[in-house]
């Protein structure tokens, strides 16, 4: 059912109260926007990793800076650390250093290895973090809120019209068919959350008067959902103190009907053809006729599928609907009857199930088959509902007919009361009778075992299988109904309208959770905040770490040589030193990050000749010289430049 709600998914920030205010802060986005955000987070984490490496290099450089004399390998390592281009490039440069110095320095590989490992470790950690930054979508889960164009519950138009009555039945039938498919797909193979606390008692007390239950006083089948949490199971998003629990108990048993059944002749064309015999059951008036159900025995000849008809008790205060006879009447439950006919179906083996019972031998082409023991068999059920506070199990309505319960008598807060009213209106559509109403024999799992009028053998508890299936449909309709409350009922036929009582807050329309599919992505806001705060801190700190370090060194009066070496090893300062060594340019800012020349000074690039070191010359190609090389600068300038380098390096 999640796919049908995708168009109603709310996009934006919200709180999933399953995880509390902080961890539950969630951002839901469409798939395309979510994909862009995931990509941005990965890039941001990568950028933060590079900035963290810069910070690490600063501390590494400063810890290695020394007044003592070091070999060239050390100074080259310091230059690489100072001017690092990221952990991957830095690791490669350290490896290259080790290779070139393999025969010219002591243990060059070992001296570079620790730096390679450190760079590789930083690269790996933030590489993995970048990949797993998308995990914040898993932390948020696949739940979202829904917001529909309409909100409320559906009922027949309150004008008593035929259109309203048929519209109500049509909508109920459509929902039952949809719920049956959902229940069959989701409840049969795995244990659903609505079934987690469900208990079954195959030896429950007969729910009707003594002697009415066919199998005795203690052979009824009772199904109890236990407390269903409005938030955890139904998805009504709320804080723990604002939740309620809903409980449903259904008890069924095959019952005797022979004492209230009469075989009568058809009296008009509405009952059948002249001469047809009609089997009528008088379990109470329906308000339309004195009998409760009638069956034309003509179906025993030419109908090769099951018939199923149900009635449910009406409002006893108004006398409307079916009013059960005293032996079936309950003031604490809704009563329903299910009239089953196997018609002309013949089984390939005897059926000992009390509701499907078939032991009448029939010979067909020298093959023995078994026909039903009686034309109609009756099953009786009662539905009982209960609402409780999720925080106080003693605050409960009586287990009975919730439609007549006084919710105001419970000590519920306003949010709990609104949720309880919402559930109360929802269960009008989810009773066991609504699982079969209008579906006929298609509501039976046994129908799946019938082909061309021949029925496969049925287990002795087939009737329990049937009512368990109806219970699953009821639970599926419960889920369907609470979602439709927020999204707005779909496929409304003529005569059916949506209502939202004025005494129920509009907030109940804005707090329904559903599981979304791949069309939307939910993010943990806490996860994103952590990524942005930590990553942003790394980025900002990398911009000012050297300034902070320099200020602290100036303030403490210690580590001046470290500050000067940090400046001297900067690539622009190294370039300045090279040009000053060549005697070109009037440079200033030897102790700044960016050295400057006098305005308007022009000179070419440094060029090295005979790079193997046998005839080294450093010349200056000016704009006017096209291939010529200047000689080394005079000794006084060279000595001045060298002395200046030494001063900065202190």
From TrEMBL:
Q: For this UniProt record, give its keywords in alphabetical order, as a comma-separated list.
A: Membrane, Transmembrane, Transmembrane helix
Q: What parts of the sequence cross the membrane?
A: 36-60, 112-132, 521-545
Going by the entry's taxonomy, the superkingdom of the source organism is recorded as Eukaryota
What this protein is called in its record is Uncharacterized protein
Q: Which organism is it from?
A: Endocarpon pusillum (strain Z07020 / HMAS-L-300199)
Taxonomic lineage of the native organism: Eukaryota, Fungi, Dikarya, Ascomycota, Pezizomycotina
């Amino acid at each position: 059912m999640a796919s049908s709600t995708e168009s109603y998914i709310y996009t934006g920030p919200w709180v999933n109260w399953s995880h509390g205010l902080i961890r539950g802060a969630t951002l839901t986005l469409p798939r395309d926007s979510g994909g862009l955000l995931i990509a941005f987070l990965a890039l941001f984490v990568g950028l933060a990793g590079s900035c963290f490496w810069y910070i690490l290099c600063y501390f590494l450089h400063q810890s290695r800076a020394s007044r003592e004399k070091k070999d060239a390998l050390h100074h080259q390592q310091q230059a690489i650390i100072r001017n690092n281009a990221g952990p991957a490039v830095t690791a490669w440069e350290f490896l290259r250093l080790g290779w070139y110095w393999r025969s010219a320095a002591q243990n060059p590989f070992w001296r570079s290895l620790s730096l390679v490992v450190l760079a590789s470790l930083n690269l790996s950690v933030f590489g993995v973090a970048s990949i797993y930054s998308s995990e914040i979508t898993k932390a948020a889960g696949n739940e979202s809120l829904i917001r529909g164009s309409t909100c409320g519950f559906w009922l027949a138009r309150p004008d008593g019209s035929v259109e309203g009555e048929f519209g109500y039945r049509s909508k109920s039938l459509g929902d039952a068919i949809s719920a049956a498919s959902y229940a069959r797909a989701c409840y049969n193979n795995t244990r659903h959350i609505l079934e987690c606390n469900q208990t079954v008692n195959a030896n429950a007390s007969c729910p009707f008067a003594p002697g009415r239950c066919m199998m005795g006083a203690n052979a009824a089948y009772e199904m109890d959902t236990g407390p269903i949490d409005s938030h955890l199971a139904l998805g009504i998003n709320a804080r723990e103190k604002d939740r309620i629990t809903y409980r449903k108990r259904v008890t069924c048993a095959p019952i005797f009907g022979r004492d209230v059944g009469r075989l009568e002749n058809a009296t008009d064309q509405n009952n059948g053809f002249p001469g047809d015999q009609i089997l009528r059951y008088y379990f109470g008036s329906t308000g339309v006729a004195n009998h409760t159900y009638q069956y034309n025995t003509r179906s025993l000849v030419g109908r090769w599928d099951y018939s199923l008809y149900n009635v449910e008790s009406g409002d006893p205060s108004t006398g409307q609907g079916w009013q059960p006879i005293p032996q079936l009447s309950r003031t604490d439950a809704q009563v329903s009857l299910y009239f089953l006919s196997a018609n002309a179906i013949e089984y390939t083996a005897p059926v000992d199930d009390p509701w499907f019972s078939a032991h009448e031998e029939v010979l067909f082409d020298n093959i023995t088959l078994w026909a039903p023991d009686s034309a109609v068999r009756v099953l009786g059920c009662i539905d009982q509902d209960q609402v409780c506070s999720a925080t106080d199990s003693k605050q409960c309505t009586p287990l009975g007919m919730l439609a007549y319960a006084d919710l105001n008598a419970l000590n519920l807060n306003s949010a709990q009361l609104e949720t309880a009213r919402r559930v109360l209106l929802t269960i009008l559509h989810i009773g066991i009778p609504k699982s079969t109403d209008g579906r006929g024999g298609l509501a039976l799992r046994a129908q799946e075992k019938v082909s061309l009028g021949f029925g496969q053998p049925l287990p002795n508890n087939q009737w329990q299988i049937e009512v368990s299936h109806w219970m699953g449909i009821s639970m599926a309709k419960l889920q369907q109904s609470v979602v439709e409350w927020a999204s707005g009922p779909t496929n409304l036929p003529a005569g059916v309208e949506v209502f939202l009582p004025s005494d129920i807050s509009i907030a109940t329309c804005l707090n329904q959770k559903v599981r979304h599919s791949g069309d939307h992505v939910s993010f943990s806001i806490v996860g994103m905040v952590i990524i942005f705060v930590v990553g942003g801190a790394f980025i900002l700190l990398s911009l000012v770490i050297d300034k902070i370090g320099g200020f602290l060194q100036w303030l403490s009066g210690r580590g001046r040589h470290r500050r000067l070496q940090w400046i001297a090893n900067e690539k622009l300062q190294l370039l300045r030193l090279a040009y000053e060594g060549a005697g070109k340019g009037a440079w200033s800012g030897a102790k700044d990050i960016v050295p400057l020349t006098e305005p308007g000074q022009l000179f070419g690039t440094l060029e090295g000749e005979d790079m193997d070191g046998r005839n080294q010359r450093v010349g200056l190609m000016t704009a006017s010289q096209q291939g010529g090389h200047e000689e080394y600068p005079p000794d006084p300038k060279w000595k001045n430049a060298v002395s200046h380098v030494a001063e900065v390096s202190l």
